[in-house]
Design goal:
Blueprint: E1 2-6, H1 9-25, E2 30-33, H2 40-48, E3 57-60, E4 62-64, H3 75-84, E5 91-93, H4 102-115, E6 120-123, E7 145-148, H5 151-157, E8 170-173, H6 176-180, E9 184-189, H7 195-202, E10 221-226
Parallel strand pairs: 1-10, 2-3, 2-6, 3-5, 6-9, 9-10
Antiparallel strand pairs: 4-8, 7-8
Length: 239
């Protein structure tokens, strides 16, 4: 696990962008993408670049269940706003949060991931160590699944909604096993609220109670943090 410490999230986003750029130069064709505030600076760099993504495939980690793609809080909307409107991909896959048959949608998404092995997977991390919507207790062997969001995640995401009652309680999410099958993983973590999660991710035991801890077992993980997020990390782990 490689730890890169940056001045702030803007510099961190640039570091992540550079990894994507290098990967594309080396022939990478499939990007696993994330939403939330952490990857926005990276998406800004992607949009401002001269890179052409029209021969690339993207696969997003998750989507709220029950939100229409046109809803400004859906992850479909987020990705269009922050990336796809300026930099379209050949294929862009996001779970269908309005699927009538959730089991069919889960199977469909697993088939998409199997048919398009992910070269670089971008991740954020939650305060409780979740990755995507894989909450504490999610089996490490999980594939795409419907999840019941925890109260801490609902509360954390409520800042994007008018009030907490509007936050969906369920989501469709790529499983931990699927994430671990990615060739390379880049995890972004910024700010004081992520200090405990970063410490558990890097130093703590590998346990399903901290989903991100499984990344210790992946052969190619880069963790990009700002100076605040690594404050509780043993100095020996800092780059």
């Amino acid at each position: 696990m490689k730890i890169i410490v940056t001045k702030d999230n803007i510099e961190g986003g640039t570091k992540a962008f550079e990894i994507i750029k290098k990967g594309m130069e080396d022939g990478d064709k499939v990007l696993g993408l994330a939403t939330g505030s952490s990857p926005i600076p990276m998406y800004d760099d992607m949009c401002d670049s001269n890179l052409d993504f029209s021969d690339m495939t993207s696969i997003n980690l998750d989507e709220y269940y029950g939100l229409n793609p046109d809803n400004d809080q859906s992850y479909h909307y987020f990705m269009q706003k922050h990336l796809f409107d300026k930099k379209p991909f050949k294929h862009s896959y996001i779970p269908n949060g309005m699927a009538k048959d959730i089991d069919e949608e889960v199977d469909r998404y697993n088939d998409i991931i199997a048919a398009n092995p992910i070269d670089i997977q971008i991740l954020g991390i939650g305060k409780n160590g979740h990755i995507a919507f894989n909450e504490p207790g999610t089996p490490f062997g999980s594939l795409t699944h419907k999840v019941q969001l925890t109260e801490s995640t609902i509360k954390a995401n409520s800042r994007f909604f008018d009030n907490e009652d509007e936050v969906p309680r369920q989501a469709i999410c790529m499983g931990i096993k699927s994430i671990m099958q990615s060739k390379k993983i880049v995890l972004l973590a910024f700010g004081e609220s992520k200090q405990d999660a970063v410490k558990a991710l890097v130093e703590g035991p590998v346990t399903e109670e901290v989903p991100a801890s499984i990344l210790q077992d992946h052969p190619d993980v880069t963790v990009i943090c700002d100076e605040v997020a690594v404050a509780k990390l043993d100095p020996k782990y800092r780059n």
